[in-house]
């Protein structure tokens, strides 16, 4: 029997009779999706006219159509999913003229984001890092809500400050400024991640400041008032109020997607203020000729900024940690920017994951990123 013939769904197809009780038993045993080696089988059960898997995986057809199994009400499609992959998806159905899209009713595993939730398909070899879950032995840091009056932004700007466990004003701490900070806390478990990595001595105790925009499409792509707020208002104020190491090498800017562009553009506008960047799936979209980038008007200022940097690249920090998912459209521009950054003399650590443009991908990279940028005693033991 070939590997394809051995697939559970194909063994089901050969069953007689293929009736409701047989399908009930099958779904109770296997659920959905069914992972068998490098193949993933998505299932849906219902009296509908068409079914699709909707996803954002570059390289797979979207939508991915399911086919009815015989005359039953069970639908299936099998695709290749390489080892270590993680995919977020939803099910879309059509019944007559009615279309509906929702999370997979046969799959209880969900991921959350500001846009809502999605079902998760994890291939063989993918594991949620153990430092993502609450560790009862790890002492917890503290989140403090503050409001900063910003002349640059012409408003009061809320920020959330993370103080590590055993915070001591007699010590000096490095500073991490996190763009889309509320989302990192809500959807990437970042407080728990910091608590655990600091407890395990993999990351040095640090102060993190989580900043959320009012209008990210306006404020994040190379916006002068935002950069001035971060570099000329927020950093000096934090240095006044907290026992921070007042040196560029102890300051890091981070962000994902448009937040990655915000982090880079602040560093470009204020070189020498920050020593490192943490860029996750940064929207580093550029054009080599013309200006037809295909990203829509929201990307116009991004492309102008990245094109200008590529034309005259300069070292704005000492080190950059970059990560990107191989299943997202931004993988090509991110790969392309690595040699550009390195050519300036900046040290770049670049990692890829078999994942997409989502918060759990970014969460899963935090251990490697933070332990490289802020190595604790345990990291020095092994490196």
TrEMBL record:
Organism: Terrabacter lapilli
Protein name stated in the entry: Enterochelin esterase
Signal peptide: none
Listed Pfam families: Esterase (PF00756)
InterPro entries cross-referenced by the UniProt entry: AB_hydrolase_fold, Esterase-like, Ig-like_fold, Ig_E-set, Mycobacterial_A85_antigen
Native organism taxonomy: Bacteria, Bacillati, Actinomycetota, Actinomycetes, Micrococcales
């Amino acid at each position: 029997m070939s590997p394809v013939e051995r697939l559970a769904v194909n063994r089901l197809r050969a069953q007689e009779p293929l009736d409701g009780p047989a399908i009930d038993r099958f779904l109770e045993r296997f659920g959905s999706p069914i992972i068998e080696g490098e193949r993933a089988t998505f299932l849906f059960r219902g009296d509908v006219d068409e079914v699709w898997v909707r996803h954002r995986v570059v390289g797979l057809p979207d939508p991915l159509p399911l086919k009815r199994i015989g005359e039953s009400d069970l639908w299936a499609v099998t695709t290749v999913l390489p080892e270590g992959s993680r995919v977020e998806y939803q099910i879309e159905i059509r019944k007559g003229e009615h279309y509906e899209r929702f999370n997979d009713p046969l799959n209880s595993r969900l991921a959350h984001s500001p846009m809502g939730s999605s079902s998760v398909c994890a291939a063989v070899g993918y594991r949620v890092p153990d430092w993502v879950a609450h560790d009862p032995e790890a002492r917890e840091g503290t989140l403090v809500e503050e409001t900063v009056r910003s002349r640059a932004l012409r408003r009061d700007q809320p920020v959330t400050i993370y103080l590590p466990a055993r915070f001591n004003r007699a010590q000096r701490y490095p500073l991490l400024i996190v763009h889309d900070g509320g989302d990192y806390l809500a959807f990437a478990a970042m407080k728990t991640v910091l608590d655990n990595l600091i407890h395990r001595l993999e990351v040095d105790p640090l102060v993190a400041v989580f900043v959320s925009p009012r209008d990210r499409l306006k404020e994040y792509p190379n916006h002068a008032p935002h950069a001035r707020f971060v570099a000329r208002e927020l950093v000096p104020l934090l240095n006044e109020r907290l026992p921070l190491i007042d040196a560029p090498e102890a300051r890091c800017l981070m962000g994902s997607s448009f937040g990655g562009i915000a982090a880079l553009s602040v560093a470009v506008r204020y070189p020498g203020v920050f020593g490192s960047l943490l860029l996750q799936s940064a929207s580093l979209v550029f054009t080599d000729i013309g200006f037809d980038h295909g990203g829509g008007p929201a990307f116009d200022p991004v492309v102008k900024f990245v094109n200008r940097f590529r034309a005259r690249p300069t070292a704005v920090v000492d080190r950059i940690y970059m990560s990107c998912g191989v299943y997202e459209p931004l993988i090509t521009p991110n790969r392309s920017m690595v040699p550009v950054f390195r050519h300036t003399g900046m040290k770049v650590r670049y990692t890829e994951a078999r994942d997409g443009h989502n918060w759990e991908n970014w969460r899963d990279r935090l251990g490697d990123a933070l332990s490289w940028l802020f190595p604790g005693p345990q990291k020095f033991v092994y490196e």
